[in-house]
Amino acid sequence: MNLSAFLPDGAIVTQAQAHDWREAVKIAGEALVVQGVTTSAYTDEMINTVEDLGPYIVVAPGFALAHARPSSSVLKTGISWVSLAHPVPFGNKANDPVRLVVGLAALDHESHLDLMASLAEVLADQIVLQAAIAAPAPPMVREILASVAPNTG
Asked: Which of 51, 65, 101, 145 is 20 to 30 Å apart from 93, CA to CA?
C-alpha cells in the first residue's frame, strides 16, 4: 500500500513553524487529533516519551518518528506528516536537526506494520523524500508520495 493512502489532507502540515522539538511534536500530535486518530492526551504522551527516553525518535538524518505506546488515547491507527519550514534540534547528535516529523499512533504493536513498510519505502528514496518535505501544500505531498511504487517483494 502507498503511504499517501494513509494520509488525508488533514494529516499533513507543510512548512510548519516550530521553535523547538516540543512544538514540532505538538503540531504532529494536533494533526493526529484533527483526523480522529488520537485524543489530545496522546500528544502529551509523545512529548513525555522523548523527555523520559531521550531523542531516540530521530531515527534518520532530519527525520523524527514521534510516537508513544499504544494507549486509550489512541482511537485508531494513523499517521501525520509535518514538514518544518526551519529544522529544529531534538538533541540527537547523529541525526539533528529535524526537518520532517511523522506522528505515529497505533492501537497495538502489530496494526501499524503496513504503514511502517510504506514509510520505509519513502525514506529510502531521497529524491521523493526531499520533494515531499519541500512541498508547499498537502495535495502536493500526497501526489509526490503516491509516485512511490510499492515494493511487492
From this structure: 145
CATH of the domain at 65: 3.40.930.10
Write out pLDDT tens, residues 111-126: 677 788 888 888 888 9
Helix axes 126-134, 138-146, angle to 10 degrees: 170
Q: How many domains does the chain have?
A: 1
Rounded Cα distance between 7 and 130, Å, is 17
Active site residues: 67
Other Cβ atoms closer than 10 A to 78? 24
Query: Grid coordinates standing for 112?
Result: 501499524
Query: 63 in a domain, yes or no?
Result: yes
Single-letter amino acid code for the residue at 129: L
Nearest to 11 by CA among 41, 37, 47: 37
CB-based contact 20:88 (threshold 8 Å): yes
Local structure of 31: helix, strand or coil: helix
In a domain, 149, yes or no: no
Residue 98 in any domain: the answer is yes
Q: 66-110 pLDDT, tens per residue?
A: 999 999 999 999 999 999 999 999 999 999 999 999 999 988 877
Domain hosting 100: range is 8-111
- Alpha-carbon distance of 57 to 76, in angstroms, equals 21
